[in-house]
Amino acid sequence: MKMDLRKYKFFFFDFDGVIVDSLDIKTKAFGELFGKYGKDVSSKVMDYHRNNGGVSRYDKFKYYYKNLLCKNINKEIIGRLDKSYSKLVVKKVIAAPYIRDALFFIRMLNRVKRDCFIISGTPQKEIRYILKRRKISQLFKEVVGSPVNKIDNLKRLIDDYEINPEEAIFFGDARSDYKAAKENNIWFVRIVKNKKSELNGLLSAPKLKDFSLLKNNFKKSHDTL
Q1: What pTM was estimated for this model as a whole?
Q2: Which whole number is the average pLDDT over 112-132?
Q3: Burial class, 29, CB count within 10 angstroms (exposed 0-12 / middle 13-18 / buried 19+)
Q4: Can you tell me the distance from the alpha carbon of 225 to that of 108, in angstroms, rounded to the nearest whole number?
Q5: Are 212 and 100 in contact (CB under 8 A)?
Q6: Tens digits of residue pLDDT in 21-78
Q7: Which tens digit of pLDDT belongs to each residue from 194-208?
Q8: Is the CB of residue 102 less than 8 Å from the CB of residue 210?
Q9: What is the pLDDT of residue 224?
């Protein structure tokens, strides 16, 4: 598949599953966090997470308590769950491998003076810490996360940086990414690595399994962008 990216000046990325191969880490962490409630609950927790990528963990905690545990949840419980979940995932995400050629692609975008942004469902403080530890913060104009949803975060960035939506593109792997791009009139490219991806049926958006194709384009022509 050929992709002409020369007209795009602003590049938006989800993080987990798009830049870093960390989806399994977070799925297993959710299962472990709710493991004390039994295998059936743990399995349903992981399935819901897989099918709702990019949704804030706080919203997932609320869903699990209401629909799976039939219990009330409050800020104190959410805070405890958040701390426990962070302990399970942060170090592992910092050490997780990159999606193939994602880092190369983003560095090339920086080299040709394109602005890159991260829009994540991870808490904003945490995702910024992860990028700092991975030593890639400098590659991004701004990094945003929850509790603000992706639609609103993207809208705010468009307004703040006076971005023409026709000059922007969003790389994501979840319905929340697609919805954010669609609501803000930005072209969306889905990153789909396996048959279980929640975006497999989304035929209206171009599909890539990684960034190797874009890397090859760079190699063939210095002015691909």
Answers
A1: 0.87
A2: 96
A3: buried
A4: 9
A5: yes
A6: 998 999 999 999 999 999 999 999 999 998 887 788 999 999 999 999 999 999 999 9
A7: 655 555 566 567 889
A8: yes
A9: 47
**SS3 sequence of the chain:** CCCCCCCCCEEEECCECCCECCHHHHHHHHHHHCHHHCHHHHHHHHHHHHHCCCCCHHHHHHHHHHHHHCCCCCHHHHHHHHHHHHHHHHHHHHHCCECCCHHHHHHHHHHCCCEEEEEEEEEHHHHHHHHHHHCCHHHCCEEEEECCCHHHHHHHHHHHCCCCHHHEEEEECCHHHHHHHHHCCCEEEEECCCCCCCCCCCCCCCEECCCHHHHHHHHHCCCCC
